[in-house]
Amino acid sequence: MIDQRQTVRERLCRALEVDLMQVEAVRGVFYGGSVATGETDTWSDIDVRIVVDDASFSAFIAEKQVRPERWGNVLFYEDPGTQLPYTIIHYRSFVKIDCFYYRQSELKPDPFFRLIWIVYDPDETLAALKQQSAGTTRKPSAEEVERWRGKVFAYLHEIRRRTERDEQHYARQCADMLSWSLAAGWLMARGDMPDGFGSWSKLEGPRSRLMEAEQKQLQALSRVTEPIDRARLFIPMFLNAHSRVCASLDMPEKRNWVEEICRMIDRPFES
């Protein structure tokens, strides 16, 4: 049976490609994500990236909610701001396009470009960029690890504060971010990084970048409904992941200090 949504996605892709290839200012079009890797399913989005010459870039951003109307029947835009170089387009077909714009002069080798699918490259700039990116890695820096660790500490302590105040939605939000932080730690220990802060992309389901045992640990966390109880279950998992991350980057683990901060969620405090 033909996947009708796949047919709709293909029509949208063809429409945007034909439209953009006719514009002199467009110096490249490529796809990222599951479209680029051939791993699309019924609910996959379209991740399209458009390279624009520097002189025309501002004009293209100004029309980022105009041009997509030529590709299909737009239902609404999920736009982060008029000056930012991307927008998210929701079509009536229930297909979503994440559309990003790049200045041609700002393209630099990056691990992201290793797996792109190039559909328009008149100057062969993208082909060269993809080749130059082949040897790059997403290995985290010591600064990124410090930021990750600090956010974990903050989430743990906020769960205690918000639980004491009976602010359960806030506490649950922090507990959910602990689960994401754990997944991020597992990736960092292997010299990898999540797609973005708080992004669950490729962390769950059959396309997950996590190992089966790691996914089971996340499932175990999700079954614990009370945020403070989930935090308690999380701590030994985090300590193990933290140790591996530090070892992979030859960073001091500071185990006693880390444990002290984590265990404060159960410390009795005077009112």
UniProtKB/TrEMBL annotation:
InterPro entries the record matches: NT_sf, Polymerase_NTP_transf_dom
The protein's matches in Gene3D superfamilies, at most eight in alphabetical order, are given as: Beta Polymerase, domain 2
Specify the Polymerase nucleotidyl transferase domain's residue ranges: 26-57
Name of the protein described by the UniProt record? Aminoglycoside 6-adenylyltransferase
Organism of derivation? Bacillus daqingensis
Q: What taxonomic ancestry is recorded?
A: Bacteria, Bacillati, Bacillota, Bacilli, Bacillales
